[in-house]
Amino acid sequence: MLIKLLEKIQLVCPQCRDPAKDMYSILAMNDIDEISSEHVMTGDLKCPDCGSKYPIIGGVPCILKDIDIWQAKVNEEPDPDPVTKIFNEFHYGKLEDLQDWPDDQRYWSALKELSKGNYLNSLDLGCSVGRHTFELAEMSDTTLGIDLRLSSLKLAVIRQIEHDVTNILFIAADALDPPLIAGMFDHASALNLLDNVRYPLTLMGQMNALLKPDGQMLLATPYAWQENITPSEEWLTPDDVIGALRGSTLPQCGFSYNILAEEDQGWTLRNNERQYSHYISHIVKAKKN
Ligand SMILES: C[S@@+](CC[C@H](N)C(=O)[O-])C[C@H]1O[C@@H](n2cnc3c(N)ncnc32)[C@H](O)[C@@H]1O
């Protein structure tokens, strides 16, 4: 974590904020225990009002309301964990032996093309090991990558330091309760996250709140719902997503977007040498009114 980025993307204390009164406190650097290539690798951030502390682990600030419970869970996991390894190959590997399968490069190129712009602040929710975050950073003054999986974020930070990318802040946080000030971002992506959260409409609502007027939203999802992650009454269809964004269905969400592009793109995860998962994501690019 580069300290200068805390001035550009202020992080809010999730413990004491009061959205009803629009009151929040901005976290400040507290202890610095280890620095590498100007990145704070170990230390913590502290809320000046309630005194809550949030650790920086492997260069990643971890800003969660239930930080102790989350950290206990992380401590039990292998590092890197198997999911991180799979996504690391998907983001940066070649899948050369998948000759008859759709080319993942086409998927990544489509996303890069669809997110093209010139942004002050951009956001990648559920960024995993960060490929799309790095691509957004090329078009942005500052980019924030958020995920709940620390081992993925740690790999992203290692890559960031290796490639000397100085405009990305990677944090561990909940996309359903982001520790951020509303209306800060010109672009917000959530790639293959909608069907990985408990409340997909809440995720869209958070993205809507974080975007400035005229801000751009990029959603990609294969709608691969799993009851153990998302209760079936929360599952959405492509029509639900488009209708909600336009405000023509689910008006209670209060969204008002113009759909700028909509396409389907395939991508493949290598679970192991003999097992692959192929998904077809519905990609939607929309502009906030
Ligand atoms: C299917 S992966 C997609 C990763 C990447 N966006 C991509 O398309 O390759 C979903 C990611 O979202 C993260 N995730 C799940 N729930 C989350 C939440 N509530 N807040 C932030 N990240 C979350 C997971 O840890 C995982 O890295």
Radius of gyration: 18 Å
> What is the strand arrangement across the widest sheet?
7-6-5-8-9-11-10
Compute the number of strand runs. 11
Number of domains: 1
What's the shape?
globular
CATH topology assignment: Rossmann fold
| SSE run | HEEEEHHHEHEHEEHEHEE
Distance between the termini: 33 Å
| Helix and strand composition category | alpha/beta
Mean model confidence by pLDDT:
95
CATH superfamily: Vaccinia Virus protein VP39
How much of the polypeptide forms β-strand, as a percent range? 25-35%
Helix proportion: 25-40%
Level-2 CATH architecture: 3-Layer(aba) Sandwich
* Top CATH class: Alpha Beta
Largest beta-sheet details: 7 strands, mixed
Number of helices: 8
Could you give a quick summary of the protein structure above?
With 289 residues, the protein is of the alpha/beta class. Helices cover 26% and strands 32% of the residues.
Describe this entry's structure for a reader.
This protein is an alpha/beta fold and 289 residues long. It has one domain: Vaccinia Virus protein VP39 (Rossmann fold, 3-Layer(aba) Sandwich). It is built from eight helices and eleven strands. The strands form two sheets. The chain has a seven-stranded mixed beta sheet with strand order 7-6-5-8-9-11-10. A four-stranded antiparallel beta sheet has the order 1-2-3-4. The longest helix is centred in the middle third of the chain and has 13 residues. The two termini are 33 Å apart. 40% of the residues are buried. The structure holds S-adenosylmethionine. The site of S-adenosylmethionine has 18 residues, from helix 3 and strand 6.
